[in-house]
Amino acid sequence: MFHGSMVALVTPMRADGSIDEVALERLVEFHVQNGTDAIVAMGTTGESATLDVDEHSHVVRRVVDLAANRIPVIAGTGANATSEAIELTTLAMEAGAQACLLVTPYYNKPPQEGLYQHYRTIAEAVPVPQILYNVPGRTAVDMLPETVERLSHISNIIGIKEATGDLQRIQEILDRCGDRIDLYSGDDATAMESILLGARGDISVTANVAPRAMHEMCQAALEGDRARAEAIDQGLRGLHETLFIESSPIPVKWALQEMGLMEETLRLPLVPLSESSKAPVREAMKAAGIEF
What we know:
The protein is built from 12 helices and 8 strands. The protein is of the alpha/beta class. It has a single domain (4-234), classed as Aldolase class I (TIM Barrel), CATH 3.20.20. Strands 1-2-3-4-5-6-7-8 form an 8-stranded parallel β-barrel, surrounded by 5 helices. The chain is globular. The chain starts with a strand and ends in a 5-residue tail after the last helix.
């Protein structure tokens, strides 16, 4: 249903922490004009953990309106309470999002059966297409391939963002689920190899600052053109690494400020990029040919 380079969009903020509506419009247009294949609003990179429900819903609705059917919009609606995830998913569907991305419940560490029941309950409650999201490095829970396989039989669960960066895990999910759901990389550093294995795209942090190159790399990999995909990805590898030199989205927000697209502001407990990390990010941007 979705494919290619899907940006995990940052949420621009003003110095007082409020949503920067002008910068949000600028960012959406930046992605439309540079070939991004879909926008994920209010995911981890969008600082969803520090926006309240009203702000969360507003950003999703605003991105849908700004995209104006020129580019698909996927809304991050995961939560560690099933009831809250249902509320966020319902609001996103009502706002016009084409699909929802639901991270595994964080902190409370449910067992595999709890994960299955969580996602099954949300899928039954809200008919919008839904994408699972496994990122154990942030949530402290790992959704195993056998659980993904069970969930792949639910009709409106259409995909999974697998962010472990483990190519063996990617292959196992592909083998278990076949064409029942699409698999998306959630790790820029291994996205190219994941797509060449059979993933349908990458939900990307790097695409925030290098949208055209990420689109072209993903497209080449989807076409099975390893040589072209590798050539493009070579210039992006510094970004794949340094945009995680500190907790995301700290580095990517600084990079976007350097590009003149928005302010660097984050909400506590995240803080601006440290001085020692700026030079590596700047060098990676230069290597990728980004003007700033």
